[in-house]
Each structure stands twice: as C-alpha cells, then as structure tokens.
Amino acid sequence: MKSLFYLLLVILLLVISYTTAASQSIITTLPGYNETLPFKLETGYIGVGEKDEVQLFYYFIESESDPQKDPLLLWLTGGPGCSGFSGLVYEIGPMAFDYATFDGSLPSFTINPYSWTKIANIIFIDSPVGTGFSYATTSQGYTSSDTKSAKQNYAFLRKWLLNHPTFLKNRLYVVGDSYGGKIIPMLALEIAESGNEAGLQPRMSLQGYVVGNPVTDENKDKNERIPYAHRMALISDEYYEDHNYATSYVWANDETVQEALHIRKRTKKQWTRCNMSISYEKDVESVLKYHQLLSEKGYQVLAYSGDHDMGISYMSTLKWIHALNLTVDDEWRPWTVDGQVAGYTERYKNNEAYLTFATVKARASLIESAFSKNIVM
C-alpha cells in the first residue's frame, strides 16, 4: 500500500512538473483564418517566481524580413491587466479582425499590411499575472505590483532568451503603451543594472525603449486632461464601433482557438481582453527618475502620442520630457507619410543618447511608418 502511495505521489509530481514547465509551440493555422499563416507564430508559457508559480503566456512572431538581423521587441500592453493580444490584433501585429463580416459567430482575420513584424521580431506578453491566458498555480502568486511586474518581466525575458539563444545578439527594445509605459522604463533599468551591469548572463543587447501615450505619473498625467480638452476637439462616440470588444471575446474563448494556441486546460475560466480585477498594487508613483537614469546611461528612446488620446495626452508626455532638461537637437517639425503630414516630431539629446517625441494623427497604423522610417532609432 505504501509503495502504491509513493508511486502515485511520483506521478503527481511529474504531472505538476509537466504542466508548469516552460513550453513553446509553433502555430501554423488559426481558427478564423482559412490559409496557412503567412508569418511564423509561436505561443508558450514561461514560469517566473521562486517556484515558477507564475506562468506568463506569450505570442511570438518572427520578423517577416530578416529575423536574425532585425530587432527584437518585447511589447507590454496597458491596463494594468490588458492582454498582449490587444497589441497583436488591435495595434501593431500582423492580423486584424474582419469587422465587415462579423455576425456574432467566430470572427475571421485579415492581414495587417502595416504590421511592425514586417521589420521586427515581437514578443507579446500577457503580463502581469492574471492577464489574458497567464495564470498562477497558487493564490499568493496572483498578487502583483509595479515593482513585482517589472522584475517578473525581466525574469521572463531572461528565460525566453535562454530558450531562444539565436536572438541573443539581436538589438533589443522594450516597447508598449498606456500603463505599459510605466513598466517599460522600470524593466529597461532592471535589464541595464540588475542584468548587464551586474554581469548576469545572458547579456541582453538592450538599445533603448519605445513608449506610446505612456503613464509616467498618474496624478500629473490626469492634470493635463482639462488643458488638452481645451485645445482639442473631442472625437464622437460613434468613432468607436460597438462590436470591437465582442470580436476578441468570441474568438479567444472559443475552444478550438484555445486548442490551436496550446492553452493549458482549466487554467482560465474565461479570457478577458483587460482583466481589471487582478490583485495589483501601484507601488511606484512616478517613473521620471527611471527615464532620467536611462538617458544618462545612453539608451535611445522614442515616445509617441496619438494626438486624440485624452487619457494620457501628448501634453503630459511633453511635460515629463521637458523635465529631463535635455538639449533640443532637432526642432519641432512635421513628419510625413506618402507626402501627407502624419504628425509632428522633436528630438532631444543627452551626450550620445537621443530621445525623440512624435505625435501621430488619425490612424494608429501610421505609427508603424514612424518606426519603419527610422524617425528615432
């Protein structure tokens, strides 16, 4: 009887080990797209924490140009609590939902010709824990904060690179928007100081970071909303289509979709695009000092703002940039796409480090043009 008990215990430990270990799968087809995917998609989990109790899910898409030479980007979405799927499908990824054909059933995809994956390798991460398909194996593991999230993202990236050593030499940028803009400089400094400068392996080829309409100091950010509204005409409610939240929920909660993505069974009751109920402490009030330190260390920065975003307005971003007391290297001027003004930009310099600010008009897809045409990097 005792030997049977030990045998069952060993089997149980093996099952637990199997279900919590890092995993990765190459996805060639997806429900909602009838052909073979025209890009290389990998999904997987990476465990972080003392006992890998936090399992962070990710989508990785190789560059459609030159994966071995093009930069590697880690994309952090806002919230906190919004899935990396938001960046993949609604912002900079190679696929977008086909709203014209959506009738409430499983939605279909179209290819996004403006995808950043045309020129970059991108990891879209479900972070912090509880976001998207990420989960924890203990109740304590679901507790997170700004500081904890930055450290767990660093542990994730370190393990990811150890599992993908061919990308160790690629230029690395930490990128994202909204609340992700708060974690990005914290993570970048973690890579620079706790990793590279401390001699921890593998050494990451961090070049800089990109933040879009970024949270920097929430109290000060909010104070800029009224002056911004005074300057700008607000867009109408009709600008947003009611079925935009619906498509992703129908697709990501479909059983065939989760099987295709290799989602671990029974780790999530229901996928939500933005999980606003996660246990999360905002324990860092301002990340201005992180921007200052990274600038002094020589890292390159692109800060961009959609000029119709009142949540974190361009005025708020310009305010913290000016607080860094950098030297203007290239004065305020328009930048264009196909001969049309797509926004305005100004570049600042601190020794050999450049920080470029750019506004983006109308379509988010124009942000890709700013990136691909090397406004800053």
From TrEMBL:
Q: Does the keyword Signal apply?
A: yes
Residue ranges of coiled coil: none
Q: Name one GO biological process term.
A: proteolysis
**This protein's UniProt keywords:** Signal
- The residue range of the signal peptide is 1-21
Pfam families named among the record's database cross-references: Peptidase_S10
GO terms, molecular function: acyltransferase activity, transferring groups other than amino-acyl groups; serine-type carboxypeptidase activity
Q: SUPFAM superfamilies from the entry?
A: alpha/beta-Hydrolases
Instruction: Spell out the Gene3D superfamilies in the cross-references.
Output: 3.40.50.12670, alpha/beta hydrolase (3.40.50.1820)
* Family the entry assigns: Belongs to the peptidase S10 family.
The molecule here is called: Serine carboxypeptidase
Q: Which organism is it from?
A: Buddleja alternifolia
